[in-house]
Structure formats: structure tokens, C-alpha cells
Amino acid sequence: MSKLSRDDVLKLAALSKLRLSDEEVEKLRGELSEILSYVEMLDKVDISGVEPTYQVSGLKNVYRQDKTRDYGYKTEDLLKNAPAIQDGQFKVKRVL
Amino acid sequence: MPGWPAIADIAADVNSGKLKAVDLVKQALKAIENNKEFDAIISVLDERALARAEQIDKNPSGRLAGVPFIAKDNFLTLGGKTTAASNILRPFEAPYQSTAIERLEAEGAICIAKANLDAFAHGSSTENSDWFTTKNPHDKTRVPGGSSGGSAASVILDIAPFALGSDTGGSIRQPAGFVGAVGVKPTYGRVSRSGVVAMASSTDVIGPLTKTVADAALVLDVMSGKDELDSTTIEKQAGSYTDLEFDLNGKKIGVVKEYMDEGLEPGVKQRIDEAIEKFKAAGAQVEPVSLPSLPLALAVYYIVCPAEVSSNLSRYDGQRYGHSAKDAQNLDESYELSREQGFGAEAKRRIMIGAYVLSSGYYDAYYKKAQTVRTKIINEFAKAFENYDFLIGPTSPTTAFKIGEKTDDPLKMYLNDIMTVAANMSGNPAISVPAGTFDGLPVGLQIIAPQGADHQMLAMAKAFEELN
Fold it and tell me: How many Cβ atoms sit within 10 Å of the Cβ of residue A6?
């Protein structure tokens, strides 16, 4: 059974931008280990000569004209859910 | 309360002036009030629905004129909030509507309310909703299935003639089976997902839940077709899905052996065995067929789905919409706290699993391996359909389970999808149709069809419906 360490869980949380509580870290450590053990049944499958599938309907490179299209949306409607806006743009905390 | 007439009949009566859209909307809104105890509905779009109904009554037209419907709350709709039953989207008001809703509205349908689901459609019971758990209309101590549990319950409670759901691993078919509704998972790409909250983009499809196959066929016919806002959409089949002429005589039906083996509740097995006998009596050739890789589909799913979830849920960053942490000191903290506060336990689990299977050093062992086993599943389906017109089996191994029975064990909950998930991994169309009840609880028969053969599948499902 794959066992995740506390550090493994913390690293995944950092990659996922989740600030987990200590209790959550411990709980997820067990649950994630259990789920990973379940999917390890795939290790026994013979996949020699088989290619992976990422898209099931076989469509490839669906092109369209590189033209703007007016959907009739107003900027203020598209910004109305933002916690902070300024001059018609999303406002976020300092990046650097 | 009497049920709704056939959708085509409602629309015909609205078009002829015999029925008023306003009265239909009021009837639906009253049904929502009368069924509050089942917690099927998150929010009501009464103002917009009534305004639309008044407009339609002035100049009725369309194949769905005046027909009220319910959308799962992961469909973007105007006139209220779209939350995906998640705290992180609690304040969200969509600035535009999903293509599916637009197409239904263009034919005169009226969205009256948003149905409950497992948050972000992660679950099989609606117990993972950040709002409440929907109760099964047949037994309030049991779940309606999920994630489209609110949609499924709404249809059986006669709140509206149809509801929309989304199906990533079984989320339309499993609840349809648990409540005794018809639930259609179309071929991947059949209906545009534009404006539907994304879960796992390589398997997400949307489809209708109804009481009859004919109703589902009409709704699917209106929604289907290419959409430039979803580049995965495929061309519509020739002909209308509402033409459901079908003769079972001489058709070849394979019963998926792996779905009839151990783990199947005896009551479910009994109903499926009876369905097999009915097909035989109608002249179909029915025999067992083995697809040995199908039991692996759930393991494939629980690698591929979280991988895609971890990517799709990265957009919830607290900066542009949705919950934003008030107490953050800097940008990174704003991301981390917004997501920590806004996501529930299941979303976090899937994000973390996704991050793990995609991370360097594990990618080949998990993600690539899963996508390769996926090819084996696709190949086995294709091979089976060389010999059979359709495959059948149960929709779920059990009837509806008790509320709280599986919430402590994520893996146990995941196993609900064991029989539905393969069609998502392969993209094949599949449908759940009612196959009777056991101890008062519905059993669903699942019919799986070749890629793109949605029309034939609907016609065959209607033929089965008529045998009951």
C-alpha cells in the first residue's frame, strides 16, 4: 500500500494552493493513501503495445477564424462578481 | 397531483393557445413549494420564469413552448445564482447562460429553478452538497443518488416535466436509476458543455432526466449539435431523435458479464434478469458477453478525473469571482485561504489526488498508465459492438442506500459508479431506464450503445419501456 507522509501531503497542498488544517492533513494522508492503493490494481494490467487515449471522439485541432465576435456582454456584468475592481479591471494584492 | 403530460403535447397546447405558459410556470412553482421537504431545489428563478412565460403567451412558438424545466445548479443561468452547490461559488451570479439552456429557451422552454447536486458534481448521493442532502422521493431516509440527485428527484416529484443533469462518471444515470427516472448520458461531444461548471473535461457530458424516453429524446434533440463555444462538440446525427420507431426482433444484445457478477444486490439482479427475459420474448437475441477490462474503469476514473479536476478547479482563486478570503495579507495567502475556506473535503481530496498523479515522477505510473488502460476499455467496447447492437446491465449494483451510510468512506462512495463509469471513459452513449422496483425502491436498466448511436439507443430504450 502506498503510504503518503505528512510532508508529501503538505507538498501537494502547497502545489494546490490549499492551506490545510493539521486535522485535514492527517485525514487526507489516510484517505489519499487508501485511494492510491485502490488504483494500484492497474499495475497488474498488461499494457504492452497499447497507446494512451486522451480524447475519445478523435477530434483534432478544431480551428475557427481568428476574428473577434461580439457576444453582447458588458464589461461591468463580467466584472460584477469580482471582490475588487479598478478602472474596469480585476484588482489583486501585490504580486511582487 | 397528476403528473405532467408528454412534453410534445404540452408544447402543442401552448402553441395552440389551449394552455398558458404562465399557468404552467405557476404550477411548477407551486410544486416546488409543496415538495420543500425533499430539498431537491437550491434556488428558484421565479421572476425571470414568469416574465418569460408572459412573453411566450403573447406569441407562442417552438418545440418546447412554455415547458418548465429544472437545471442542475452547475449550469450557468440568468436570473439568479449558479453555485454548483459549493461554498466557493455561493455568491456567484452568472453573466451569461450555458449553450444548452440557450438552445432550450430558443424553443420556448422555461428554466424555473436550480437543482441540488454534490458540490461540483463530486459525489453519488447529494450528501456532498454544501447546501443540504436531497431525499429520495420513494423513501426520505435514502439518498436520490448523485451527483444530479436534485434533478432526478424533481422529475419524480413532478416539479417539472424535465431536468438537466451532467454525467462525468454516472451522475445522470445513477440518480435516474435510484429514483426511477429516465437518464441519458449522450455520446461525448453530443451536447455543448459551454457554460456548465467543468469537472473532468475529457468525460463530462450533459443530458436530460425525464419520466419517459420520448420526453428525453425531444429534449436531447433540441440540445444536440456543434457549438463553436465547445470545440469538442460533434455533428448531430441525421434525423430527429423524436422518431423512435424500433423493432427488437432479431436485435443482438450483450449482457455485460462483469456487471452481473458478484457484488450485485439480489433484488437488482432479479429485475435485470426479468428485463433480459422480456427482450428475449420480444425476439431479441440476448447472450452474456465479457469485457474483462470494465472492472478497471473505476480505477482509471479515479486517476483521470482528479487530474482534470485539479486543473479545472484551479480557476477558483478568489480573485475574479466566487468566495474571496477577507483576512489574507498577500496574494498567495488570498489564494490559499479562499480555496481552503471555499472548497469542501471531497473537492480537496480530488485536487490533491490530481496533483499527485500529475506530478513529476508519478505521471507515467499513474496518469499515463490510466489513459493507456482507458484505450483497452475503448477497444473492448468497439470489439463488443462488432457483434452486438447494444450492451445492457444494471445501472448500479444496489438500490438507493440510506443517507449517511457511506459518507465516512470515500472509496465506498466511489464504488457506486462502478457500472456507469466505463461509458464515460470510452465516450459511448448510455441510458438508464426504469426496470421495476425491489422492496419499493427503483432499479435501473442500463443500455450502452456504440459511439454516436444515441438515436438508436433512445429508440431501443423506448421499445423496452413499452415492454413494461
Answer: 12
